[in-house]
Amino acid sequence: MKRSTRTMRLASIAAAGVLVLAACGGDSDDDGGDSAAQSEADGVLTFGSLLPQTGSLAFLGPPEFAGVDLAVEEINEAGGVLGEDVVHVKGDSGDTDSGIAPDETDRLLDAGADVIIGAASSGVSMTVIDKIMNAGAVMFSPANTSTSFDEGDYAEPDLYFRTAPSDILQGAVLSNLLIQDGKQNVAILARQDSYGETLAEQVGEGLEAAGSTVAATVFYGENAQSYDSQVADIAASDPDAVLLIAFEETTTIIPQLVSAGVGPQAVDTYFVDGNTADYSETLDAGLLEGVKGTIPGADSSQDFKDRLLEIDPDLDSFAYAAESYDAVIVSALAAIAADSDAGSDIAEEIVNVTRDGEKCTTFAECKELLEAGEDIDYDGVSGPIELGETGSPTAASIGIYEYDGNNQIEAVDFIDGNI
User: Is the pLDDT of residue 36 over 50?
Assistant: First the structure.
């Protein structure tokens, strides 16, 4: 299929009026604990990566780590930050079930992390966000899309930032995709967490605003042992499309949908970023052929992909690699602008280096401008970036993907949305 990039008038945006940006993950109680380690100016900018090596989003880990590693390599090739090479310390975020993120965060802070890239899961991020900010370090997620990070206590400018667009925008694109495909009676099966609930709500609102019907919205618990009743409810709604908002449990749910007569080959099926994984080894060949899914993020250039493959030749996905790369580059540029590697100082400049200055697109180019006393506006590999006051993007892209006969995805379109 021909790949293109375009700007769509989103029906659900019109219905909602204004999108509020807030990715992957569900709610979890905040740890809120303080750490003895504090981000202070010591002359060396240290990045900690809190990304999924294990857990339900482990398939997102390799491209995210590769994005961080590539950015660190290119920063140091260009002379580093404040005259020193930047340092990268890796950590495993796991997932909300494993609960390892708080201890891993302590380890990263003890290693001197001034900026922590991660987590990917919004639920995991919520378990460590206060711990990181209380330590005076920046938390910069490449994949969080929960609206929670722009609401309540987190609505004011602080030490939290992200390069990923929101579940609200993804929901708008999903509903328009379903409408364009002529779907009139859509059943939604979703995780019962902030990720699933927000996406289901946004898709439902968009469908109804366009005159389509939500046949059923069925939720299942994050730690559900069985999906029999939920699948039965989906089948009973007689849908003309099924939207599955899930993580790794997709490999269990899809065969059950097939058995109930509402599997992908019987009813058109749609996925989201949390389950648009490679299923070539876990599901029967051809089972997902034609299934469509959405992943936040712009179309990465072949040059960027080639550079990532030099870092990790085994990459078979580039999801959130660009967002991870840009989170590192933006933080490094902010440190130069602040003339400090302390997290709190970096945070003061992060929004500034992404807007209202001289356009630049590489670390080396932007660094030269900053050192000449110029204001900059960094546009990265993930898009224009331009962060708002709460540290979230004010414009973003969503990719539309489709599965082939080997249960692997390929990008077919990209939708640009302004917030």
Answer: no
CA-to-CA separations, 390 to 11, 110, 367, in angstroms, rounded: 25, 27, 24
Instruction: Give the relative orientation of helices 302-311 and 61-77 as an angle to the nearest 10 degrees.
Output: 90
Q: Which SS3 state, helix, strand or coil, does residue 184 take?
A: coil
- Rounded to whole angstroms, how far apart are CA atoms 182 and 203? 15
In the block, residue with structure tokens 């331009």: 386
Phi, psi of 271 (to 5 degrees): -115, 175
Enumerate residues 6+ apart whose C-beta is below 8 A from 180: none
Distance separating alpha carbons of residues 252 and 127, to the nearest angstrom: 27
- Residue 153 falls in which region: left (phi positive, over 0), alpha (psi -120 to 50) or beta: alpha
CB 330, CB 382: distance < 8 Å: no
Residue range 327-363, pLDDT digits in tens:
999 999 999 999 999 999 999 999 999 999 999 999 9
Check: CB of residue 198 under 8 Å from CB of residue 122.
no
Cα separation of 227 and 252, whole Å? 8
Residue 122 in contact with residue 149, Cβ under 8 Å?
yes
Q: Which neighbouring-strand residues pair with 82?
A: none
Decide the pairing of beta strands 292-296 and 409-418.
unpaired
Q: Specify the amino acid at residue 18.
A: V
205-250 pLDDT, tens digit per residue, is 999 999 999 999 999 998 888 999 999 999 999 999 999 999 999 9
How far apart are the C-alpha atoms of 202 and 167, rounded to whole Å?
8
Q: What percent of the chain has pLDDT over 70?
A: 91
Tokens of 96: 């909300």
Give tens-digit pLDDT for 259-304. Answer: 999 999 999 999 999 999 999 999 999 999 999 999 988 888 999 9
Euclidean distance between CA atoms 366 and 369, whole angstroms? 5
Average pLDDT over residues 187-209: 93
What is the model's pTM? 0.81
Residues 6+ apart with CB under 8 A from 182: none
Task: Answer whether 205's CB lies under 8 Å from 12's CB.
Answer: yes
Taking only Cα atoms into account, the Rg of the chain, rounded to an integer number of angstroms, comes to 21
Q: Cα dist. 106→42, 91, 144, 255, 282 in Å?
A: 19, 10, 20, 40, 35
